[in-house]
């Protein structure tokens, strides 16, 4: 009997110890709450021999990087001390049933007015990697932007060798003049506003520009070590090539989704996209330029100057002149197409590519540039843009509020699944019948249905590459092509095994992109070209995803501090 008692007691102690260990473990891995204060304020900043007041967050340009872990809750209190209304979008975060935290002005919220605050309160669920945040009203994202770094859960490794260090690298654009004044002038004339005067890397144009020796970003590296670069394209209107002199890069992630690694001497990144690369400091110690300049394969004016930063080996004097990388030519379509073809989802048991195989809803959207009447503009017209010949009209209240509270007269859910007219979309340039219809027309999608959307460029005025961003979701880019999409032949060539998963897709010049996603996130989700110029012209719409049957599949009630219009 004594032995049995001892055994029982020992067993009990053992079970208690295990319970305490598991409890401690659960405390250790419990999700944290990260809090940030974003003060939107005007600050004088000098670039290219010229100072001007710009809108910033916390007086910093670019703004602060938001750090969190997968599973964390994040609270960001945005206090607006600038003269403009403000809203901030957390680009690429899915915001499940929580569109109130998504940020696009007049889509999911009314903007934060001067003197007011709003707390963006969201959970980071099932995502890890590099994303970014930016103003989502007017052209204020020219200076109001920054990175989001989501670390994997504790004790969960990267699916690639752990780097020795990491750096955030954010590309942007810089104007001498006040950006909002430049846009107003363009709109008044009915013409595109003046292009930027420089590109920037972490807010700095680099020493190839005047007065920019001190406005140069440099990252120090040690011989033999590997570095993770978290790259964001925050430029307003330019797809960009990026390279590091003498060094290859291994792409391991796009838009916060792991990829099959591949090595390249340059990368292409569209506005709104992010790319993580591993770089080995394996060359002769020295100073090497990192360089960025636009990709544009049609004769449209672009700020084609090269911004630079320095990849600096430790203990090398700054008097050593860096060498420049060889970037693809500005119109190198073949590089752009072949680079994007190399992007593949990792598709492992831990990081599967759950591509929808069956499609419930087929959508076909044509991109068009066009004209609209404007009595005060040159020639009596202004440039506009459309999807399926509809130029989107922004409402005066948030679409998500209108949807949630069933407000009448704010929007219609009659956005067409296909264009009104079939034509040779990418044939000779079309310069007649360029007027579009206007409206706040949305596409309604049944909860949990699978959607295939083919986005087709057209030669209305001109073909052009367009990066399209879908809020609230990732999608799989199952196919792309040049020319007109052929529904009888092209789907047979889709990649349904390991297509790239992302939140922003580059529709190729004079071509098409096919994306698939599952509409499992209820709410109102913006879909727009991420070239700020085209968004302002009306190249946008939104999806209304209906509520699901379960309690956790409906749009949450709005927060008490939601701004009013």
Percent helix, as a range, is 10-25%
Cα separation of the termini: 78 Å
Low-pLDDT runs: 1-28
Spatial order of the strands forming the largest sheet: 10-9-12-17-14-15
Give me the Rg, rounded. Answer: 25 Å
| Strand percent estimate | 35-45%
Number of helices: 5
How many beta strands in the DSSP annotation? 32
- Overall pLDDT metric: 94
Structural class: mainly beta
Principal-axes geometry comes out as globular
Sheet bearing the most strands, described? 6 strands, mixed
Please give a structural write-up.
The protein is mostly beta strands and 565 residues long. The chain is built from 5 helices and 32 strands. It has a 6-stranded mixed β-sheet with strand order 10-9-12-17-14-15, with no helix packed on it. The protein has a 6-stranded mixed β-sheet with strand order 21-20-25-30-27-28. The longest helix is centred in the N-terminal third of the chain and has 28 residues, at 2-29. The chain is globular. Residues 1-28 have low confidence and may be disordered. Its cofactor is Cu cation. Keywords: Apoplast, Copper, Glycoprotein, Lignin degradation, Metal-binding, Oxidoreductase, Repeat, Secreted, Signal. One of its GO terms (cellular component) is apoplast.
């Amino acid at each position: 009997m004594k032995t049995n008692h001892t055994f029982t007691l020992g067993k009990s102690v053992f079970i208690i110890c295990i319970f305490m260990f598991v409890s401690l473990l659960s405390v250790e891995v419990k999700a944290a709450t990260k809090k940030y204060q974003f003060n939107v304020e005007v600050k004088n900043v000098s670039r290219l021999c010229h100072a001007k007041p710009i809108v910033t967050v916390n007086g910093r340009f670019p703004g602060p990087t938001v750090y969190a872990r997968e599973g964390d809750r994040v609270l960001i209190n945005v206090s607006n001390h600038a003269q403009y209304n403000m809203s901030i979008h957390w680009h690429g975060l899915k915001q499940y049933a929580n569109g109130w935290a998504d940020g696009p002005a007049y889509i999911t919220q009314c903007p934060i007015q001067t003197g007011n605050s709003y707390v963006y309160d969201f959970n980071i669920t099932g995502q890890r990697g590099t994303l970014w945040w930016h103003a989502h009203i007017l052209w204020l994202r020219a200076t109001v932007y920054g990175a989001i770094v989501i670390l994997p859960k504790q004790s969960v490794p990267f699916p690639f060798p752990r780097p020795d260090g990491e750096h955030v690298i954010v590309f942007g654009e810089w104007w001498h003049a006040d950006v909002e004044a430049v846009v107003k002038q363009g709109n008044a004339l009915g013409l595109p506003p003046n292009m930027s005067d420089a590109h920037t890397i972490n807010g700095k144009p680099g020493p190839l520009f005047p007065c920019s020796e001190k406005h140069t970003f440099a990252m120090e590296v040690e011989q033999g070590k590997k570095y993770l670069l978290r790259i964001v394209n925050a430029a307003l209107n330019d797809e960009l090539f990026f390279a590091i002199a003498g060094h290859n890069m291994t792409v391991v992630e796009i838009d916060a989704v792991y990829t099959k690694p591949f090595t390249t001497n340059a990368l292409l990144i569209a506005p709104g996209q992010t790319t993580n690369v591993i770089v080995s400091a394996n060359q002769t110690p020295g100073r090497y330029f990192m360089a960025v300049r636009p990709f544009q394969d049609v004769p449209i004016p672009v700020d084609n100057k090269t911004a630079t930063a320095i990849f600096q080996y430790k203990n090398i004097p700054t008097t050593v002149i860096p060498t420049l990388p060889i970037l693809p030519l500005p119109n190198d379509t073949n590089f752009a197409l072949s680079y994007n073809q190399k992007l593949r989802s990792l598709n492992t048991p831990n990081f599967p590519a759950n591509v929808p195989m069956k499609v419930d809803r087929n959508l076909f959207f044509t991109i068009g540039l066009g004209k609209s009447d404007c009595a005060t503009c040159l020639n009596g017209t202004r440039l506009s843009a459309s999807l399926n010949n509809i130029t989107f009209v922004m409402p005066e209240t948030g679409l998500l509020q209108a949807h949630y509270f069933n407000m009448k007269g704010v929007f219609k859910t009659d956005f067409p699944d296909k264009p009104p007219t079939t034509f040779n979309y990418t044939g000779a340039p079309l310069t007649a019948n360029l007027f579009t219809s206007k409206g706040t027309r949305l596409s309604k999608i049944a909860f949990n249905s699978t959607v295939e959307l083919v986005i087709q460029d057209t030669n209305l005025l001109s073909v052009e590459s367009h990066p399209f961003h879908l809020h609230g979701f990732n999608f799989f880019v199952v196919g792309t092509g040049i020319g007109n999409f052929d529904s009888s032949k092209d789907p047979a060539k889709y990649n349904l095994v390991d297509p790239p998963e992302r939140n922003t897709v580059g529709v190729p010049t004079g071509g098409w992109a096919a994306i698939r996603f599952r509409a499992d996130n209820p709410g109102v989700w913006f879909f727009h070209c991420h070239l700020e110029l085209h968004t302002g012209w009306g190249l946008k719409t939104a999806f209304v995803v209906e509520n699901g049957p379960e309690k956790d599949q409906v749009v949450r009630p709005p927060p008490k501090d939601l701004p009013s219009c």
